[in-house]
Amino acid sequence: MTNGTGSVDIVIVGAGAAGLGFGVTLRHLGIENFAILDRAAVGASFLRWPRQTRFITPSFASNQFGQLDLNAVCLETSPAYSIGVEHPTGKEYAAYLQAVAKHFELPVTTGIDVLSIARKAPHQRFRLETNRGDIRARFVVWAGGEMQYPRTCGFQGAELCLHYSRVTSWDDLAGGERCIIGGAESGVDAAIALAHAGRRAVVFDREEPWNRKGSDPSQLLSPFSRARLHSAVESGRVTLCGGSVVTGVRRNGNGYQLALEDGEVFDSADEPILATGFVGSASLVRTLFDWRDEDFPLLTENDESTVTRGLFLVGPQVRQGNLVFCFIYKFRQRFAVVANQIARRLRVSTDPLKWYRRHGMYLDDLSCCEDACAC
Predict the structure, then answer these.
(1) DSSP state of 286
(2) Above pLDDT 70, what percent of the chain?
(3) Which of 82, 296, 313, 347 is the most exposed place for a label (fewest CB within 10 A)?
(4) Whole-number CA gyration radius for the chain
(5) Taking the CA of residue 35 as centre, how many other CA atoms within 13 Å lie in the half-sphere pointing to its CB?
(6) What is the pLDDT of residues 105-161, one digit of tens each?
(7) Do 191 and 232 touch, CB atoms closer than 8 A?
């Protein structure tokens, strides 16, 4: 399918880490009649990262010892081996994804924007309306990225701020000091990059993520970020303002003024940085899911929509109970769970998935995720 029209068994929406990783899983099952669609390019979300941003999870080639590289999207690959970098940039990682697509001969078509997804009856095929015609599919696997869907609301004046996702390079920002609203990974990454560029940064966050303890890296700063942040604070270029809630931003002459929940105000000469995260691409097909909260779809135990049979979700928006699958090494373990369901319904042998289970790539027993680190 090269022109964006036709009929296939499975359409994967998104040619990023989740979409390509799941596509390789289908290849290993011997499933051929599928398509991967992306409106931009392979690895588009990673190509939008600021130039200085790097993976917080390390890449290390360890396949021959039975341990998959943390940043690999599929078996038999390793970003550390492919690009020779432990903490790759977005551009470097996109190159790895492009190599995966080429090596496994994945049926990727770019330049196709999925405008809507509908189905008249549960037993009928999905109809995907795109900018290049309609596509019919028995199954849809949503694998859209997050970087293209920033969270830009939440308080009055948020539109006056510059969201993290709109920064091409932190070196390009003028001014001597920037206020950063949000102290999780993206906010800390912004502060570190600004400090490295010789500027000052003040980070505001109610929850103080930099002080949070725990063994789930999805809930606290990574060691990579924490170590760099410590150095930036020690340099005097980064100030952390914990317990501070920004309730509004307004223009103040040629600068800006941040209003805090406790009544204090903070003046800033330059545009504040929004590091408030992303709403996720699944919001584009909101009506096809029930939602556990504003941001995350409600899923069955097999990551299928609870209201639209045949529609599955893979990638960082997957949630199962209290478990967060936002890292690649986490959500890749659910590819085989989804693939198992589709293969069974297509009456395709699932024997190749035993290989996935042996290599820790088939996580269907979530009780193993309850163990915490002792020390």
Answers:
(1) G
(2) 99
(3) 347
(4) 22
(5) 21
(6) 999 999 999 999 999 998 899 999 999 999 999 999 999 988 888 988 889 999 999
(7) yes
Integer Cα distance of 119 and 123 in angstroms: 9
The pLDDT value given to residue 69: 97
Rounded Cα distance, 232 and 218, in Å: 22
Q: Which helix (H) or strand (E) element contains residue 256?
A: strand 255-260
Fold: same for 6-148+278-370 and 158-274? yes
C-alpha to C-alpha distance for 280 and 27, rounded to whole angstroms = 27
Alpha helices by DSSP H, listed for the chain, are 17-28, 44-47, 79-83, 90-103, 185-196, 223-234, 328-331, 335-345, 353-358
Q: Name the CATH topology of 158-274.
A: FAD/NAD(P)-binding domain (3.50.50)
Please state, as a whole number, how many other Cβ atoms lie within 10 Å of the Cβ of residue 90. Answer: 21
Residue 3 predicted with pLDDT over 60? no
Whether the CB-CB separation of 194 and 173 falls below 8 Å is answered with: yes
Pairing mode of beta strands 114-118, 126-130? antiparallel
Q: Which strand ranges, in their side-by-side order, compose the sheet holding 177-181?
A: 162-163, 273-274, 177-181, 200-205, 238-242
Contacts of residues 296-304 at CB distance under 8 Å and 24 or more positions apart, as own/partner, are 301/364, 302/337, 302/338, 302/340, 302/341, 303/334, 303/337, 303/338, 304/338, 304/341
CATH topology of domain 6-148+278-370: FAD/NAD(P)-binding domain (3.50.50)
Selection from 2, 9, 13, 6 nearest residue 116 by Cα: 13
Candidates 238, 173, 232, 172; CA nearest to 203 is 238
Give residue limits of the domains in the chain.
Answer: 6-148+278-370, 158-274
- 130, 147 in Cβ contact below 8 A? no
What pLDDT, in 10s, does the model give residues 4-33?
678 999 999 999 999 999 999 999 999 999
Partners of 291 in beta bridges: 297
217: DSSP letter: T
